[in-house]
């Protein structure tokens, strides 16, 4: 699950510009992106992409809502820097691969002929694209990002593993809830919105 292919055929380009291009493409043309941008064994760009999204989420959250910065490392600035490093080096990679392992088990149940684990890792990584914007303390935005990410995950699994939309949705329901509902705080945002609407 940690294979990095130096020059995979059909894989993503490397570098900051490539990350930005992938982010825009997966948001605007997800079906085409997942059909052409995911290559067997090409996990490096996907992992970098997921780390960038996680750091953007956590960084904007710390910036716009300083109360969320952990206080275990001294002052707010140092705590924010250490926390972002922890997110980039440990939390994002570990979460990505653990989720991919769970998704692979579910795919065994729902999809008979499927692509490899590496492709699943990449799909989950790129499906997180909307959540780069989810750090702002705006429940509607955070909920929209989480729902869009869950939709991208289902689309990616459908395209990369060659299955139906129904099977893709069923296979991604639990991973999407974990990643977008809990990891990116989508469920909290949805609960806040429902409470506001109920009060209104």
TrEMBL record:
Chief location of this protein within or outside the cell: membrane
Domain Yip1: 25-180
Protein's membrane topology: Multi-pass membrane protein
Compartment(s) of residence: Membrane
Organism domain of life: Archaea
Pfam families, per database record: Yip1
Keywords in alphabetical order: Membrane, Transmembrane, Transmembrane helix
GO CC terms: membrane
Regions crossing the membrane: 44-64
Official protein name in the record: YIP1 family protein
Organism per entry: Halobaculum magnesiiphilum
């Amino acid at each position: 699950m940690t294979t990095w292919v130096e020059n995979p055929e059909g894989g993503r380009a490397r570098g900051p510009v490539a990350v930005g291009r992938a982010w825009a493409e997966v948001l605007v043309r997800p079906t085409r992106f997942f059909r052409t941008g995911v290559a067997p064994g090409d996990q490096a760009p996907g992992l970098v992409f997921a780390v960038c999204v996680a750091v953007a989420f956590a960084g904007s959250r710390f910036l716009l809502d300083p109360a969320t910065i952990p206080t275990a490392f001294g002052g707010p600035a140092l705590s924010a820097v250490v926390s972002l490093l922890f997110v980039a080096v440990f939390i994002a990679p570990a979460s990505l691969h653990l989720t991919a392992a769970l998704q692979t088990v579910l795919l065994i149940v729902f999809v008979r002929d499927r692509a490899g684990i590496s492709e699943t890792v990449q799909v989950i990584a790129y499906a997180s694209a909307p959540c780069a914007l989810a750090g702002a303390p705006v429940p509607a935005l955070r909920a929209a990002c989480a729902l869009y990410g869950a939709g991208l995950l289902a689309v990616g699994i459908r395209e990369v593993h060659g299955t139906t939309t129904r099977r893709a949705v069923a296979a991604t329901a639990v991973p999407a809830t974990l990643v977008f509902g809990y990891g990116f705080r989508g469920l909290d945002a949805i609960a806040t919105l429902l409470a506001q609407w109920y009060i209104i």
